[in-house]
């Protein structure tokens, strides 16, 4: 075929396409096949329905639940912070109260110990005074006993000496008188 016949065939094909486009209206002018467009639109609607029903709704529900859990967790965290602050305040108050009670107990124990110490010292002084007075009494009794024994011994010695001196010169009556006088002088 020659070139001229090819050009004529191309022109005829373009004219056929132009007639076909003119017969289909606006969609034909844009190059859209309305049957194919309608089928694609229905397919898109089905895909959109399936996507919405099985993907978007469950995903939205999951995201809403997660958001609710996060909000509840934040509220719980705030409540926990408030409870922690309250607990810390309570703990501080209890520590202060316990320290006050411990100081009171220590003061009471110290006062009691001081009182017991003073009572012990007073009792020890009383015991010492009692022992000293008993010792003085014992010493006085021993002294009196010794003096009495010394007097008797001295009287015996005086009588013996006087007897030696006066053995033959006095009688027994005179001896007793002499002894009695000697004892009176010694006392």
Automatic annotation (TrEMBL):
Pfam families: ATP-synt_B (PF00430). Its main location: membrane. It is found in: Cell membrane; Endomembrane system. It comes from the Bacteria. One of its GO terms (cellular component) is plasma membrane. Gene3D superfamilies: 6.10.250.1580. GO terms for molecular function: proton-transporting ATP synthase activity, rotational mechanism; proton-transporting ATPase activity, rotational mechanism. Keywords: ATP synthesis, Cell membrane, CF(0), Hydrogen ion transport, Ion transport, Membrane, Transmembrane, Transmembrane helix, Transport. The chain crosses the membrane at residues 37-56. It is a single-pass membrane protein. F(1)F(0) ATP synthase produces ATP from ADP in the presence of a proton or sodium gradient. F-type ATPases consist of two structural domains, F(1) containing the extramembraneous catalytic core and F(0) containing the membrane proton channel, linked together by a central stalk and a peripheral stalk. During catalysis, ATP synthesis in the catalytic domain of F(1) is coupled via a rotary mechanism of the central stalk subunits to proton translocation. HAMAP family: ATP_synth_b_bprime. F-type ATPases have 2 components, F(1) - the catalytic core - and F(0) - the membrane proton channel. F(1) has five subunits: alpha(3), beta(3), gamma(1), delta(1), epsilon(1). F(0) has three main subunits: a(1), b(2) and c(10-14). The alpha and beta chains form an alternating ring which encloses part of the gamma chain. F(1) is attached to F(0) by a central stalk formed by the gamma and epsilon chains, while a peripheral stalk is formed by the delta and b chains. This is ATP synthase subunit b. The gene is atpF.
